[in-house]
Write a structure and sequence with these properties.
Elements: H1 2-8, H2 13-48, H3 64-74, H4 78-86
């Protein structure tokens, strides 16, 4: 019996059971918190466009969560890069500036409306053709009379005075 008291340090079996229960509860609590952090960072990394298994970095004691937060805070997310690549069109001239959301896929076309069945009724008699209208008489336009031609010949010179004898011209 002396060896037993030496190993337990003078503690009773109830004290040992309580200590062991406290240790197991603490380990279980730590494992649950670690699993929660791994799942949490797995989902965050997936939505940011990274490989979700980077969430396992949180299992590194002391620095794991800090490493994950630094990756998320200081790196450009692949999901954001993909959105920026799709939004290149908004930076072209004539498209303006700002965020551009790509076109949504077109909505399906509605089904064509049913065509009503034709209703057969007795044919109405055709109206008699109208008599042809008389042709109008052709219009006769009189030809205009030729305009008198103006003579552009020079006016005749006045007659010279009769010459007297002895004078020469």
């Amino acid at each position: 019996m002396g060896n037993y008291t030496y190993l337990t340090g003078g503690l009773s079996s109830a004290d040992l059971a309580n200590a062991l229960g406290a240790i197991l509860c603490s380990v279980l609590f730590v494992l649950l918190i670690a699993a929660f952090l791994v799942v949490l960072f797995y989902r965050i990394f997936c939505r940011a466009g990274y490989n979700g298994w980077l969430g396992l970095l949180t299992l590194i004691p002391g620095f794991g969560t800090l490493i994950c937060l630094c990756i998320l805070a200081f790196d450009t997310w692949p999901a954001k890069k993909k959105l920026e690549e799709q939004a290149v069109r908004c930076m072209l001239p004539g498209y303006g500036a700002g965020t551009f959301v790509p076109d949504q896929p077109p909505a399906p076309e509605p089904a064509p409306a049913p065509v009503p069945a034709p209703v057969y009724a007795p044919a109405a008699p055709e109206p008699a053709p109208a008599p042809p209208a008389p042709e109008p008489a052709p219009m006769v336009t009189p030809e205009p009379a030729p305009a008198p031609e103006l003579e552009s010949a020079p006016a005749p010179a006045p007659p010279a005075p009769p010459a007297e004898e002895g004078q020469t011209l």
